[in-house]
Design a protein that fits this description.
Elements: E1 2-6, E2 14-18, H1 25-31, H2 33-42, E3 47-51, E4 55-56, H3 72-78, E5 80-81, E6 84-85, E7 92-93, H4 95-109, E8 114-118, H5 120-131, H6 136-146, E9 171-175, H7 182-185, E10 197-202, H8 210-217, E11 225-230, H9 240-254, E12 263-265
Parallel strand pairs: 2-3, 2-8, 8-9, 9-10, 10-11, 11-12
Antiparallel strand pairs: 1-3, 4-5, 6-7
Helix pairs in contact: 2-9
């Protein structure tokens, strides 16, 4: 299922929007109205496609779920994921279905200019950016040749002629992102992701700690990444300074003026936006 906030994208952008664990496309849409408004103001006629992960979750999957205070019916109607992590954390069960859902949207509505994601959706967004990078299919083949248990390049990202679905994305934006364990998913990160990525880190985020996001950052091509720390927790920040940061980064990437320089900003008040 895809919730699309769109006008005619004749001269606008097409952006994939990927929700976090236990959310849905419609819930993520509701939580990012300010971000949506800011993007549509900066890029009129753009199209934001809010997808819903294919895996419906059980109440027990929700961190901190309390059956005495929460309705199981309401949980089922809102809680989805792109994959489930097995107990030891090294395997993402159902990831092939999650990626196939995203690939289906690319086939139907693409090509896309960029992708944004929150938490698990941010991890998925980085994977999508990686899969569309030039040479990534060969990187997966090499990973499999080194270790046969490695996750292969997903066939869902290939067209009927065996070619990658579209050209590389112009940008990716990650809110509380993280990398998958390389025990099985090395192909996504070796070599480093080439797509320019803006990473948001919440200084008070206890769900995805900074060290996990830094692992993803270290898997991105040096100089192509931007890192911003906001003084909040596990959510998509909606204050104007953060929204301007997002639109400034997109403008730079779309215009082809994104410079290959590493920018680590611990406080947005210390930087000028747009970039």
């Amino acid at each position: 299922m895809s919730v699309s906030s769109q006008q005619s994208p004749a001269n606008g952008l097409k952006i994939l929007m990927l929700h976090g664990f236990t959310q849905s496309g419609s819930l993520f849409h509701a939580k990012t109205r300010a971000l949506e408004k800011s993007i549509l103001k900066a890029f009129p006629s753009s199209s934001l496609h809010y997808l819903t992960g294919p895996l419906s979750l059980d109440p027990i999957d929700k961190p901190g779920f309390d059956p005495s205070t929460e309705s199981q019916n309401s949980f089922h109607s809102e809680a989805f994921a792109w994959w489930r992590r097995v107990d030891d954390g090294t395997e993402y069960r159902g990831i092939d279905k999650g990626l196939a859902t995203i690939a289906s949207t690319i086939k139907e509505y693409g090509p896309f200019d960029g992708v944004m994601g929150f938490s698990q959706g941010a991890a998925a967004a980085a994977m999508v950016a990686s899969l569309l990078d030039h040479g990534r299919r060969e990187a997966f083949d090499q990973a499999v040749s080194r270790r046969s248990n490695q996750f292969p390049y997903p066939s869902s990202f290939l067209d009927v002629d065996g070619k990658v679905l579209q050209q590389p994305l112009k940008f990716a934006i990650e809110f509380s992102g993280f990398a998958a364990p390389t025990d099985l998913y090395e192909g996504f990160y070796v070599p480093n992701i080439k797509t320019p990525i803006l990473h948001f880190i919440g200084s008070l985020d206890t769900a995805v700690e900074e060290a996990r996001t830094r692992t993803l950052i270290n898997s991105c091509e040096k100089g192509g990444e931007r890192i911003v720390t906001h003084p909040g927790g596990h959510y998509v920040p909606s204050q104007k300074i953060w929204l301007d940061t997002v639109t400034g980064f997109i403008k730079e990437c779309v215009a082809g003026t994104h410079e290959l320089k590493s920018e680590n900003v611990d406080n947005a008040e210390d930087m000028d936006v747009p970039f």
